[in-house]
Amino acid sequence: MIERRPFASLGGANHGWLDARHHFSFADYHDPARVHWGALRVWNDDTIQPGTGFPPHPHADMEIVTYVREGAITHQDDQGNKGRTEAGDVQVMSAGTGIRHAEYNLEPGVTRIFQIWIIPDARGGAPAWGAKPFPRGERSGRFVTLASGIAGDDDALPIRADARVLGATLKAGESAEYRFSDATRHGYLVPNTGRVEVSGVVLEARDGAAITGESRITLRALEDTELVLVDTAA
């Protein structure tokens, strides 16, 4: 089953400095049909104005993956980690027993991100943060694993969940395939840009596709497209 969730149907709020759209229930937006998808708890589509950002705030027991779509995000936390992650690259924070962090757009233009929260397999553990470049050219025509807690995904940023986050870029007319390890897995796919057909379902930019009961999906780009996919346990 592949359920298209149009961008226009998402919850969210425009705070001026932050225009946030929520694929799942978050903050003041609650939809009992969209609380989580497998272990995927949050997928926020955020546009952050220059010179603004999220002031210091706490998290615990969550794997937080930030995919930078445009601009850059600057991170600082109470564990001594600092870093700037720019468009196409990824940062991961394992909140563990608790971490306090801030994220700011210190760039001259807007920053756009997907922020993805995945429920960890177990509570606790020491907090951790990391970032890594993933050049878009290296994802051309195929999925590349960006973050993962699955054995064998050695080149990805580590997370503490039976899940992986993947990215791909496809030129118009190109196709790609992704195979789930079994049909009980839950997939969630969002094109950052362009249009794509996913096993017969057409997605516009920033639509979501909730996938379950599928052993594989086949994608065909109707326009040049950049995709992010999450594959989690049920």
TrEMBL record:
Family as reported in the entry's similarity comment: Belongs to the pirin family.
CDD domains (UniProt xref): cupin_Yhhw_N
Transmembrane intervals: none
Organism: Stenotrophomonas mori
Protein's name in the database: Pirin family protein
Domain Quercetin 2,3-dioxygenase C-terminal cupin per the UniProt entry, residue ranges: 151-231
Residue span, Pirin N-terminal domain: 12-118
Superkingdom: Bacteria
Pfam family, one: Pirin
Gene3D superfamilies: Jelly Rolls
Database matches in InterPro entries: Pirin, Pirin_N_dom, Quercetinase_C, RmlC-like_jellyroll, RmlC_Cupin_sf
